[in-house]
Specification:
Layout: E1 10-13, E2 17-18, E3 30-35, E4 40-47, E5 58-63, E6 66-69, E7 73-78, H1 85-88, E8 95-98, E9 108-110, E10 127-132, E11 137-146, E12 149-155, E13 159-162, E14 166-171, H2 176-194, H3 211-222, H4 231-234, E15 240-245, E16 248-258, E17 261-266, H5 273-289, H6 293-296, H7 303-315, E18 330-337, E19 340-347, E20 354-355, H8 361-378, E21 382-387, E22 394-395, E23 398-408, E24 413-420, E25 425-432, H9 434-437, H10 442-452, H11 455-458, H12 462-465, H13 469-474
Parallel strand pairs: 1-8
Antiparallel strand pairs: 1-9, 2-7, 3-4, 3-7, 4-5, 5-6, 10-11, 10-14, 11-12, 12-13, 15-16, 16-17, 18-19, 19-20, 21-23, 22-23, 23-24, 24-25
Helix pairs in contact: 3-5, 7-8
Length: about 475
């Protein structure tokens, strides 16, 4: 590691280029920028016309959805053309010139460096100049994951310099993104102060500030229609809580956390406690209606009965499926959760059980069937494949990437469809049931096959497949 004392280090930037003179960086060059308002930031040059080296139209990219228009920039200084390694290995060094100092040239000095290794972190969304462990210079916006960890975002697609890549950092000037974050922090502090002693509207909270009191009053009403109703069933819908906001208690729906911030959706459909109770009845009605234990556990409380029914249903088409394959991935039980009987499952032996939210025995059996079908396909090795050729196919904003038929060891077939857009994607396997192969003609086979893998949903219609002689032969027609 470098011997130089970063706390005493000053970098002097002496090779600025003037944009008004059409003196521009190379395409993709990362630069320190002096803005026309005197602030300093950094970014990678991205001209509108990359072939025109003197073009002043474009953006300096600082990160994902984070750019500075070239029209805001007065001068730039390269950050890419320097390696400070030799200087930083000298423990006496306290001042480094980046380019020769001369009379009449523009110079800017930066100091105040800190180090992550010493537990010194930027503020959230603060844009910083970085000295990397390899001696190079860079910059990035601090993306805090939690109190003592994060990364420096410097380019699109969340490209970043990790904490282990940075030797020292110092904040550049504040910008709109950082100032919004600072204002949000100030607002959070003001909100916390207001909420220390919240008040309660006597009409809205006439039954107090215990949310269960309101749920229990709503439960009494629901039981006149659904005798089996319970609080546990009601709270399967995203639960409402009573919490302070702006110094007053509110009813709000707890929607979990985003970036460590609790999201509460305030109830605004009424102004009295009884109106809220009526709202709770309607809000939780579907969850209660779909929790009838007689319908849900019509075959009793022995989960084996349900698993056996699912097994027999899957066995009809997946003929190689047997008891040695079933249940290796998911483990199912019927357990009491919050006082109610529930179907539960867990993935393998390490995970905890989670509730399988289904309204009927038949729906639970269907869920198990789907799990069993995937287990069956994984247990049947592929012996041959045929990749269907296609051009550009768009499916509801996604683009088809793969469409592959596979012959399995047992002589059965499956197809894999993969699609994606610019930022995400997914794939899915479909088993081609024996019923499809009972068709006497290839055209009739395709009619049956497209009921399983509809062309409108997965990109291939009958006319795309009917004349494919290679596929026809691969499928045995």
């Amino acid at each position: 590691m470098f011997k130089c004392d970063y706390t005493k280090l000053t970098l002097s930037f002496n090779e600025f280029h003037n944009i008004e003179a059409n003196d521009m960086p190379q395409y993709g060059e990362f630069c320190l920028l002096e803005l026309k308002d005197g602030r300093y930031t950094a970014g990678k040059w991205n001209p509108d016309d990359y072939k025109n080296k003197s073009s002043t139209k474009g953006d300096f990219i600082r990160g994902t959805a984070d750019t500075v228009d070239a029209g805001e920039v007065a001068m730039w200084h390269s950050l890419e053309r320097y390696d400070l390694t030799e200087c930083l290995e000298d423990e006496e060094i306290g001042y480094i010139n980046l380019g020769p100092e001369k009379d009449g040239i523009h110079t800017h000095q930066i100091k105040g460096f800190r180090a992550i290794k010493d537990g010194r972190f930027p503020k959230s969304e603060q844009y910083c100049l970085l000295i990397l462990n390899n001696g190079e210079l860079s910059a990035g916006r601090w993306d805090r994951w939690k109190r003592n960890s994060g990364t420096f975002i410097y380019a699109p697609a969340l490209a970043s310099h990790g904490m282990d890549e940075v030797w020292a950092w110092t904040a550049l000037d504040a910008d709109d993104i950082f100032e919004r974050e600072e204002e949000a922090e100030r607002e959070k502090r003001r909100e916390n102060e207001l909420n220390k002693n919240p008040t309660a509207d006597p009409e809205k909270f006439k039954y107090g500030t215990d949310i269960d009191v309101y749920y229990e009053k709503a439960l009494e009403k629901l039981r006149s229609e659904y005798p089996w109703a319970t609080l546990t069933q009601m709270k399967k819908s995203l639960p409402y809580i009573i919490t302070p906001r702006h110094g007053k208690y509110i009813f709000g729906r707890d929607e979990g956390k985003i970036l460590n911030t609790r999201i509460i959706r305030e109830w605004t459909d009424g102004s009295t406690a009884d109106e809220f109770i009526d709202f709770l009845c309607e809000y939780t009605r579907e969850s209660v209606k779909n929790s009838d234990p007689e319908k849900k556990f019509k075959y009793g409380l022995d989960v084996k009965v349900y698993l056996d029914k699912a097994f027999e249903n899957v066995k009809k088409d997946y003929r190689w499926f047997d008891k040695t394959i079933a249940g290796k991935t998911w483990i199912y039980k019927i357990k009491q959760v919050g006082g109610d009987w529930e179907f539960v499952r867990k993935y393998g032996k390490k995970d905890n059980y989670s509730v399988v939210d289904c309204e009927s025995a038949e729906r639970f059996i269907e869920i198990v069937e789907y799990d069993y079908q995937n287990e069956a396909l994984r247990a049947n090795p592929v012996v041959a494949s045929y990749k269907v050729p296609f051009g550009s196919i768009e499916i509801h904003g996604w683009y088809l990437e793969k469409y592959i038929f596979y012959r399995l060891k047992t002589g059965d077939y499956k197809v894999t469809v993969q699609a994606g857009d610019r930022v995400t994607g997914g794939s899915r396997d479909f088993f081609i049931t024996p019923y499809c192969f009972e068709a006497k003609t290839y055209g009739e086979f395709l009619d049956r096959y497209l009921e399983i893998v509809p062309g409108a949903s997965f990109g291939m219609e009958k006319e795309d497949l009917i004349n494919n002689e290679d596929l026809k032969k691969f499928l045995g027609y």
